[in-house]
Amino acid sequence: MTCSRLPRVPASQHDAARDDTFSRTLYERHGTVLLSFAVQLCNGDRHRAEDIVQETAVRAWQHRRILDPTTDEVRTWLFTVARHLVIDHHRARQARPKEVGDSEAVESAVPDPAEQVVMLRAVLEAMAELTPQQREILMYTYYLGYSVEQASTALGLAAGTVKSRAHYALRALRESLRARAVMD
Questions:
Q1: Which spans in 96-131 are helix H?
Q2: Which tens digits make up the pLDDT trace of 67-116?
Q3: Is residue 124 within 8 Å of 116, Cβ to Cβ?
Q4: Rounded distance, CA 124 to CA 71, Å?
Q5: Cβ pair 165, 137 in contact under 8 A
Q6: Between 20 and 30 A from 9 (CA), which of 51, 110, 143, 170?
Q7: % helix / strand / coil in the chain, to the nearest 5?
Q8: Over the range 105-122, which residues count as b (16 or more CB within 10 Å of their CB) and which as e?
Q9: Cα(37)–Cα(41) distance, rounded to whole angstroms?
């Protein structure tokens, strides 16, 4: 990546206005795109993505003498730093055991039986509304875990027909579950 090189200035000769302009320009030109990128990297967790953007901006500020926030080339540098921060955070979480107060651990350890019963009932009712062909294709492809080729052979249908029916069956099932307010 090519960033414009600026002469090194001793720490005692910082220009506060220049530092402020650097940060403001960085956020104005790249902040929105960087946040969108970070949200994708964080699987939709906006709060974590904002933390990643903040840390990326701090690192950019630490390299402000060699980075030019007015160029688009700096965006590649920002994306790389953000990506590395997400990877580092993920590795750090994998390296340590789950904490007792960790919401993910609590949710996955104790599923709510009442919620499971309500969901199962809603899915069964929604399945009953499907056509016999739609139920059959979902049974083979999802419940039994058949591949498209296996379902095609078992049902005597073309692979494209299996894919098409599965697509429309899932769409009908989703609509029925949404109507029951079980699914967003």
A1: 103-109, 113-129
A2: 888 887 888 888 889 999 988 888 887 777 666 655 555 455 566 777 77
A3: no
A4: 56
A5: yes
A6: 51
A7: 75, 0, 25
A8: eeeeeeeeeeeeeeeeeb
A9: 6
What's the Cα-to-Cα distance from 32 to each of 23, 37, 86, 96, 125, rounded to whole Å? 14, 9, 17, 32, 43
State the Cα–Cα distance between residues 168 and 49, nearest whole angstrom.
35
Q: Could you please report the per-residue DSSP string of 6-42?
A: -----GGG--HHHHHHHHHHHIIIIIHHHHHHHHHHT
Distance separating alpha carbons of residues 52 and 88, to the nearest angstrom: 11
Residue-wise pLDDT tens digits, 11-48 = 444 566 676 788 888 888 888 888 988 998 888 889 99
